[in-house]
């Protein structure tokens, strides 16, 4: 059932807090799933879908940069799965050099 | 940070101190096989450096979890309150944009400068991680000599 974006966001936050408080206990790792919790989880999923499809309904095809992002993500997963200890040769000296190089590329994500 | 996120991050990244200690190996040491979680932690060390230095005592994680999920985590002591503050952001890749999911905030598709910076960060991350950790050519994905 589609719902306006603002309502969906508010609803999602409220439901997330409730589910967090209900499903996960900081004192132990038990996850107690009751029928009502499962219903809340389903409602959250529905609200999320509503946001995703209500925000930019004119762009439902995969955008070019999304395609590239996913390709890189799949490649990283493949690199990890094909990782061979023998190819890993990151010595301390190299790490220092890399750190110096990387810090030249600074920017603020939240700008 | 919600307990859900806390558990998820701990599950994914483990304790960074343990990982950092495991990385300090002599040059002659025989390199061992790393688990996917440890590899993600190594990647995250590169990812965290893309955004400049951290304040003293701070900690940052930035990594690709899978093709549809990127995680940003940052913690540090607030100068105002003196208390430890944490923040976790999950970026979900959808066909029609990148959804920013943050506790206590509205869920929004990022756009403008934030979208551009996110794409720059992920591109740099991919290129640096491919070359430095996996010894791969980022363009072809093939192992380089």
Characterise the protein shown here:
The complex is a heterodimer of chains A (111) and B (145). By secondary structure, chain A is mainly α. Chain A contains four helices and no strands. In chain A, helix 1 (5-23) packs antiparallel against helix 2. Residues 18-35 and 90-111 of chain A have low confidence and may be disordered. With 145 residues, chain B is of the alpha+beta class. In chain B, 37% of the residues lie in helices and 25% in strands. Chain B has a five-stranded antiparallel sheet, with helices on both faces. In chain B, a hairpin with a 2-residue loop joins strand 1 (59-66) and strand 2 (69-77). The radius of gyration of chain B is 16 Å and the shape is globular. Mean pLDDT of chain B is 83; it is low at 19-30. The interface between A and B is large, with 59 and 61 residues.
Keywords:
heterodimer, A: disordered C terminus, B: 145 residues, alpha+beta, 4 helices, 37% helix
Distance between the termini of chain A: 35 Å
Strand segment tally of chain B: 5
Radius of gyration of chain A: 21 Å
β-strand amount of chain A = under 5%
The H-and-E topology of chain A, N to C, reads as HHHH
Radius of gyration of chain B, CA atoms, in whole angstroms: 16 Å
Which percent range fits the helix content of chain B? 25-40%
Total strands of chain A: the figure is 0
Number of helical elements of chain B: 4
CA-CA gap between termini of chain B: 43 Å
Based on helices, strands and strand pairing, what is the structural class of chain A?
mainly alpha
Mean pLDDT of chain B: 83
Largest protein interface, residues of each chain: A-B, 59 and 61 residues
């Amino acid at each position: 059932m589609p719902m306006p974006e603002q309502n969906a966001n508010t609803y999602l936050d409220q439901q997330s807090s409730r589910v967090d408080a209900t499903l996960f206990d900081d004192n132990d790792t038990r996850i107690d799933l009751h029928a009502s919790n499962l219903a809340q989880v389903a409602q959250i999923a529905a609200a999320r879908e509503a946001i995703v499809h209500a925000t930019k309904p004119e762009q439902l095809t995969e955008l070019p940069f999304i395609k590239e992002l996913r390709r890189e993500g799949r490649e990283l997963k493949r690199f990890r799965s094909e990782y061979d200890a023998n190819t890993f040769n990151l010595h301390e000296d190299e790490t220092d050099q890399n750190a110096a190089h990387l810090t030249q590329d600074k920017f603020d994500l939240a700008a | 940070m919600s307990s859900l996120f806390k558990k998820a991050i701990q599950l994914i990244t483990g304790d960074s101190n343990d990982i950092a200690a495991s990385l300090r190996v002599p040059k002659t040491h025989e390199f061992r096989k790393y688990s996917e979680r440890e590899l993600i932690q190594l990647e995250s060390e590169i990812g965290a450096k893309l955004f400049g230095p951290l304040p003293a005592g701070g900690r940052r994680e930035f990594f690709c979890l899978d093709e549809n999920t990127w995680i940003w985590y940052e913690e540090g002591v607030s100068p105002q309150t003196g208390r430890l503050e944490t923040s976790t952001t999950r970026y979900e890749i959808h066909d029609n944009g990148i959804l920013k999911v943050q506790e206590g905030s509205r869920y929004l598709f990022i756009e403008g400068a934030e979208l551009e910076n996110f794409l720059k960060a992920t591109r740099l991350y991919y290129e640096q991680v491919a070359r430095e950790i996996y010894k791969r050519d980022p363009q072809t994905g093939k192992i380089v000599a």
